Structure formats: C-alpha cells, structure tokens
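Write out this protein's structure.
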Amino acid sequence: MKELTIIFFSTWKFAATFPVAIYVMGMSFTETLVYTNIGGIIGTLLSVYFSRFLIHVWKTYWPEKIKLSRKPRKIFTKRNRRFVKLKSNYGLIGIVLLSPVVLSIPVGSFLTVKYYGNRNRNIFYLIAGQVFWSVVYTLFYTQIEMIIT
C-alpha cells in the first residue's frame, strides 16, 4: 500500500514525495528511486496526453473566427510574466529542469505541449528531467538520513 501511495503522490507533486518516502515510509534508496520514477513517468504521460486533449478541445470549440474582432487588452499577471520569462530565457530545457522541482509535473507538461508542440522527443526530455531530479533528491535525502541516524 505504501508503494501505491508514493506512486500516486509523485504523479502530481514530485519533489514533495521524497521526504515522505524516505522518512515516513522508511523506503530504501532503490525503492524510492523505483516508485517515484514510476509515478513521475505515469504523471508525465497522463499530463502530456491530457494537455494535448485540452489544447485540441480549446482550438476546436473556441476558434479565432468566433472571437470578437476587437481583441481585449491582454492582462499580464505576475504568474504569466514568470511563464513567459521562463520560456524566453531558458526554453524547453528550462521547463524540463524546473518542471519536477518548482512547477508541478502537470504544469510543466502543459507548458511543454503548448509552447513546443506534440513531439515525442519532448516527452522523452520531460521524463529524463524527472529521472535526473529523482536521483538527485534520493541521494540528498538518503545522505541526510544517514547523518541523522
């Protein structure tokens, strides 16, 4: 049951799962890597395909010709500015690296699909970034556990 819990939570908020897996659930290094990566990969795949579906539905049911001819002034919020700055300064690699850590996996997947299209290599990049952070987090938290005990 603890394995399913870790898999479920790592599909959504990847970075917060590691302390729970190591300290609360008492998982080993290998168990933590395996279960958080399974959850992260499932979360990435589900988020990418759901994002593709959402973007398709949005373009289908709200095409440009239905919108008013006079475009309303675009409102820039702090959040929108951060996303635009992230995309323009760091590109796909920035989104991939920040997705599991700062953003959540679904938000990073949505931004990748929206700005960089429906390419399978983008899914590979998202999964590779998630696996990289999984190794980093697991090493970090297991080293802290060894120091504490």
